[in-house]
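REQUEST FORM: STRUCTURE PREDICTION
Request ID: SP-0412
Submitted by: Lab K.M.
Chain count: 1
Length (residues): 545
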Amino acid sequence: MRHVDLVETDDPSTPAQDEDPSFLDRVRRRPRWLVAGATVVAGLVAYQLVSDHRLRVQDDARAAALADVPLVLDPVDPAFPVFLRGSYSWRDGDVPPEVSAYLGMGVPVADVLVTGTSGSGGATEARLVALDPATAEPVWETTFAPPVEGALDGGSWCWPPEDEAATSLRCVVHWQLPPSADAPADGLWTDVTAIVEVAGADGRVLRRTDLPAGAMLGTGPWGTVVGTRDGARLTLAASEWDGTTRWTRTLDLPEVGPDTYVSIMAVEDRVLATVGPDDAGWLLSADDGATLTTLEGHGGLWGQTTLRPDGSVVVTDPERATDEPTGDVPVMLVRPDGTEVPFDGDHLEWVGLDDGTLEDALLTGTAASPSSTRTRGGEPLPADPAADDGSVARLREPDGSVRWEVPGLDVLAAIALDGLVVARTPDELAAVDARTGRVRWRVPMPGDGVSVHQLLTDGRVILAARGAQLDAISYRGERLWSVHVQDAGEEHVVRPGPAPTPAPTGADVAFGDEVTWMASLSGRLALGVSDQDGERQEYVVFEHR
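STATUS: Completed
RESULT:
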C-alpha cells in the first residue's frame, strides 16, 4: 500500500485564485457594476440616436424650406445613378435639346420642361422644345421664322413663371442678321428679337411681339422696356406684358462712337439704362419713366454696372479701376439719392444661391495679394498676421456700410443659405454666420489653381467641386463623402472616393478635360465634360433619391 500524506488548509472550501482577478471576475462579484455600465451604455446610445434624429430633422426641414429656391437640387443620391447620358460636338450643329434643358436653363411648366435652341446650328428658324422631365422624351416643338429675311437662329430662352400653377410661359426668341455685303469686314451682326408666350401643354403661340431690328430689351416683373437708337438719341418704350403701353422716353446719349452700346436692366420698380463703354446712364421710374438718378460714367474703364432691388447701383470705382479687362473689378455704390460709397477696392462677389439670407446685403471682397494694404473708408488698417495675403471678405448693408469682414477669406465662389454664407477659397470651404460674421467652421479643401470651383446644395449637403472631385459637406462642416470623375475609355464615370493622384490613366481630368458640375432649374444634378480642344462635349444627368 502506497503511503499518502494529507495536508489540511485553514480554509479547505476556498479554491486557489490568481493574485490579480480579471475584469470579468470583478464584474461577476459585483453585479451592480454590470447594471450601472449597461445603463451608461444605453444612455449614450439613446443620446446618440436622439442627436442623430435631431440632426436629420434639421436637415429635412432645411431641405423642405429650400425646395422651391431655383437651382437647389433634388435630394442627391450618393450612388449617382445615371438618368441620361450622351455627347455632342459643336461641329454637328445645334446642341441637343436635352443638354440645354438639363445642363442649361430648361424651365418647368405644365408638367413639361421647356428649353430653346442654342443658336449654334446655323438654321434660320428658332425653336422651343418641351421634354417630359421624367423620361427626357420630346413632347412638342414649336418653330419661329425670323421677322427679317436672312437672319439666323441666335438662341432662345424662357423665364420661369412666377406662379407655380401657370400653364404658359414667356420666352425670348433671338436671331442675328449678318452685315450687308458692302459693310466693312469687321462689321457687326444685328440682333433681332421676338418676345413670345406659349402654352406649356402643346406649345401653341399665344402671343408674339417682334422688336425692331437692333433693339435692346430689358424685362421686369411688370413687363418690358425696349430701347432703339437713332444716332445720338435713345428711345425707351415700356409696356405691360400684355402689350399695354406704360410710357416712352427719349434721351440724348452723352457720347456716340463706333464702340457705343446700350444696356437696359429692370429690377422691381426701377429701370437702368447705361451707355457703354463709359457706363454713363439714367435710373428711371418703371411707373412713369421719370429720371431718379443720373450716372456720370467712369471714363471708359473696363467695369460693370448692376441695379440693386432698393434702387442703388453698383458701378466701377473710377479711382481704382484700370482700362484693362479683369475678373475682379473694383466697385462702389451709388445710392438712390446719388451719394457715392467707395468699397475700399473690393469687387462684387458672385453669390450663386441665396434663399433670402443676405436680405439685399452685398458680399464684396479683395483677392489675395501679399503686397496689398487693407483699407476701410479709405484709411489703411493695421496688419493682421491671420490675413497676411491681403484678402478680405465683407458683407455690406444695402447702403454700403460694412456689417462684418473676415480677413484672410479669399472668396472664389459663395452661396447664402440657412443663415450662412458658405465660401469656397483657394484652400478651404468656410461657413460664416451671415448676421454676425463669426466663422462657424472651416474644412480644408486644397485647390489645383485651374479648376472651376462650384458650390451646389440639395439642402442636406453642400457639394463642393474641385477638378475631377466632388465633396459632400454637411451644414455643420462634416466631410461626409467624396466622388470623382474618371475616364473609362469611351465615356467618363463617377467613382466613389477622392480623386486618385496622379489623375486616372487615359485622361488628366483635373488638368486636361474640363469637368463642370451644375444644377438645372428642374432640380437635377448634371455633369459636363469638355475635352481639351473643346470639340467634344459629354453630359451626364443623374437620378435623385
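NOTES: The CA atoms of residues 199 and 417 lie 34 Å apart.
Reviewed by: T.R.
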